[in-house]
Amino acid sequence: MNNTHTMASCFHPPPSVSTNRREEDSIILFSASNSPDEYSSASSSFSSSPLPTPNRYSLTVANLSYTIHHVTILKSVNFTTQPSKLLAVALDPSSTILINNARISNNNQLRRLCGFVPQDDDLLPLLTVKETLMYSAKFSLRDSTAKDKEERVETLLRDLGLVLVQDSFVGEGDEEDRGVSGGERKRVSIAVEMIRDPPILLLDEPTSGLDSRNSLQVVELLANMAKTKQRTVVFSIHQPSYRILDHISDYLILSRGSVIHFGNLEHLEDSIAKLGFQIPEQLNPIEFAMEIVDSLRDSNQTDSSRSLLSSSSASIENENDDTIAKKQEFRSLFDVAEISFLCSRFCKIIYRTKQLFLARTMQAVVAGLGLGSVYTRLKRDEEGVAERLGLFAFSLSFLLSSTVEALPIYLRERRVLMKETSRGSYRISSYMIANTIAFVPFLFVVSLLFSIPVYWIVGLNPSVHAFSFFVLCVWLIILMASSLVLFLSAVAPDFISGNSLICTVLGAFFLFSGYFIPKEKIPKPWMFMYYVSLYRYPLESMLVNEYWSLRKECFSGGDMGCLLTGEDVLRKRGLDKDTRWINVGIMLAFFVFYRFLCWGILLRKSYSKSTL
């Protein structure tokens, strides 16, 4: 039997489609029934707490075609779906989209009228179900009062059967972070899109990865919502069971990109009977249709020009481009409320992320105490000078590499970020600012936890001013490393690639820091690495901070007098001037530069992967 699956890339192309795709593969797209008795098993909560119902919108697509890698996926498909219906859609720019018989000319109109639930549940696992919906309400319902947002969230929790798990973490469904069940997580994704109450809801395989019970619950929920709220719900589904078919009235079956059937189940059974086939008892009509798809396609060719378009007397209130431009221009200003919401969310995630919060703080304390125990009370002699240099170099290597553990967290957040920013929840610049505001104080605490034990146990420059600058330097090192990891997480496609990229970059920076190879010995083609190395400037700053106030102090003497002063130590490293604050400025510039690069890359990805 041929594979039964769907293509439901809603208003944006899928990431990849194999070029060796089998031509026999067919696509089934379903729409919900109008029959009231088909919703008897669904939740009745929708009718108990009705929401304001928007205007009814029908969705019509004409000349729907899609080709990728020279493989035709859809070919001139026409269809329409009305309120209380569910239907799956893929879109190519050559298609014509009509909503209430009015042509859609730009994506802003689609975003205003449509909500999109992707196949993967891109949610933050360390937020509770209610927190997830509340933050979505804060981003989407900006003109509503706090009370209205709270009521909207409470209504959705009741309507989608999430009241009992509203204080549970969303989780990821794995062994370490299970959270809510798969069906509940899918309902949370649906609730996030329903926050702004869109008249048209699009879902890409909402039952994917769910067991039969949860799949049935999700379909019942969608069917009941479409019927009682008169929403136009468009969704794709993979191999529906008998019980799921009970909630479906119309079927759009595609083969090789063309329509081979559109109508109810009885119509499909009649078409199969006219071809001389009998449906086996162990198969439902849809499954059997996949086995005789070639015969159905041949018999349907004569009716291929039949239009499925239907008109509607309702009209759509189009928002002109000037209005949209003004809104976008206003949104480009500094949005304090938007940043504050993101800061609040970041703080909760930092506190709840054990591998980031607890591990990072413990790592700083243990490393500080460990290094202090190794370099306890260094002497002020020539051997002590060499040991101090080794301490500074190792500390830099540890501090810069210790931020790699944040990479999987950034990669996970990137999926959520792309989804939320592409639909206009907030701007990427607001995300970057909020990320900075939330992480800077936390990283300062980490720098203190490392600096205090290592500085005083080792016995570095006892000046309070020198200690304060050492803490500042450690803080800036961690901030630079955090920005670098954030930037590389925007570039890397996955954790393995990102980890390899970070290790390679940090290794190159360390090699050309001036610690292993003096500046004079670095080949000219590689000299630029000396100036962009994140190790160079903090290493120089630590050395100057340690010896500048001790320039006249003798670190090695003999019968001939003092052989090595603090000034001599600095001169051997090419440090004749106090460059500490210049280096501070450079380190701050690196911190901002890598975040700016990250912002640019994420912004470009957001535009290229724009969705509803």
Automatic annotation (TrEMBL):
Bilayer topology annotation: Multi-pass membrane protein
Keyword Transmembrane: yes
Subcellular location: Membrane
Signal sequence coordinates: none
Keyword Transport among record annotations: yes
Residue spans crossing the bilayer: 357-378, 390-411, 432-458, 464-488, 495-517, 581-603
Pfam family, one: ABC2_membrane_7
Name the record gives this protein: ABC transporter domain-containing protein
